[in-house]
Design goal:
Number of domains: 1
Strand content: 25-35%
Radius of gyration: 16 Å
Strand order of the largest sheet: 3-2-1-4-5-6-7
CATH class: Alpha Beta
Number of helices: 6
Bound molecules: 5-O-phosphono-beta-D-ribofuranosylamine
Order of helices and strands: EHEHEHEHEHEEHEE
CATH superfamily: Formyl transferase, N-terminal domain
CATH architecture: 3-Layer(aba) Sandwich
């Protein structure tokens, strides 16, 4: 299989974006070429990471346009770069159905809970408030719902007695950074098989 051109979308810090970059530099993602970053916030730190690593980036400010306009603009950018796979790495926005359709089963998201528990923007806070004893992170395909697509990989962590949103987030982030590049490499090397909403990984 040829190397896949990957587009990354981020809204902020971009530590998951960095994890993909670093995995590439370590030679762990031979089938991945990070070809484009798109951020929807001009102040997103992910931009600095793209600059440092000479990855082309575009800022499409979501404050200044409608959801449809935003998605159309991003699709244009990705078409131009011939992007085949998209990673949402801390991208805090819902994509419209035409976007999801165009890249059906080609968009990955990383979410900081064990889905389907605690979807949405406050996963850590929600897990602690609920009294859950474990949480974790999930890499999944993006469908039209919120954090509801087929699950590719999950890792669990324990929630301790005095856990705070920050401490849980820190604990989970370590696993996000390991799992996202792994899942991306599996997808780009054609090893992720989808049957309904069940994902299996082809053995080597
Ligand atoms: C991560 O916790 C990710 O799971 C969630 O948003 C956070 C983004 O962090 N979707 P970063 O921007 O990758 O550092």
């Amino acid at each position: 299989m040829a190397i896949m051109k990957v587009g990354v979308m981020a809204s902020g810090r971009g530590s998951n974006f960095q994890a993909i970059i670093d995995a590439g530099l370590r030679g762990e993602t031979p089938d991945v070429e990070i070809s484009q970053l798109v951020v929807n916030k001009p102040q997103a730190y992910a931009i600095e990471r793209a600059k440092k690593n000479s990855i082309p980036y575009e800022i499409v400010d979501s404050e200044t346009m409608t959801r449809d306009e935003f998605d159309k603009e991003v699709m244009k950018i990705f078409e131009k770069r011939k992007i085949q796979i998209i990673v949402l790495a801390g991208f805090m926005r819902i994509l419209t159905p035409p976007f999801i359709d165009k890249y059906k089963n080609k968009i990955l998201n990383i979410h900081p809970s064990l889905l389907p528990a605690f979807p949405g923007a406050h996963a850590h806070r929600d897990a602690i408030a609920y009294g859950a004893k474990i949480s974790g992170c999930t890499v999944h395909f993006v469908d039209e719902g919120v954090d509801s697509g087929p699950i590719i990989m999950q890792t669990s962590v324990e929630i301790s007695k005095n856990e705070t949103e920050d401490s849980l987030s820190e604990k989970i982030l370590v696993h996000e950074h390991r799992m996202l590049p792994k899942a991306l490499q599996l997808l780009c090397s054609g090893k992720v098989v989808l049957d309904g909403r069940k994902v299996t990984i082809k053995p080597d």
